[in-house]
Amino acid sequence: MSGLTLDQLRTVPCGQCGAPAGEPCTSHQGTRVRRNDVHQARTKTYQEAQR
């Protein structure tokens, strides 16, 4: 699954890399976009918001 289709990417910011909602997570101090997934912290934040 492409990271661009993940609900957590569209709806919550990433607490690990600081990417805002709607923007992909980054790796390597923000120099490389994570194209296929998001940080686990972002997924956890999204799951908690769904409860």
UniProtKB/TrEMBL annotation:
Residues 18-51 are annotated as: Disordered. InterPro entries: Phage_Znf_bind_put. Residues 9-47 form the DNA-binding phage zinc finger domain. Pfam families: Phage_zn_bind_8. This is DNA-binding phage zinc finger domain-containing protein. It comes from Streptomyces halstedii.
